[in-house]
Design goal:
rod-shaped, mainly alpha, 0% strand
């Protein structure tokens, strides 16, 4: 009778709780979400964020519209 005072059962509980914590508890993993869209949508997002000027936006939009 070698049960080590119930430690075997406790370790099963510890492992179960650890695996449940890994797989079932939602966490926010920081990563850059890539949004797939049309080139015009990407251009609009860049303009809205201030990454490009109005002149660059209009010129790029005209280029994109001329290709259609």
């Amino acid at each position: 009778m070698n049960h080590y005072g119930g430690m075997h059962f406790i370790w099963w509980i510890v492992w179960f709780l650890f695996l449940a914590w890994i797989f079932f508890i939602p966490t926010d993993i920081p990563y850059k979400k890539t949004k797939k869209g049309s080139p015009l949508d990407v251009l609009k997002d860049q303009f809205a964020k201030g990454e490009i000027s109005k002149e660059e936006f209009v010129a790029s939009r005209n280029i994109l519209n001329s290709e259609n």
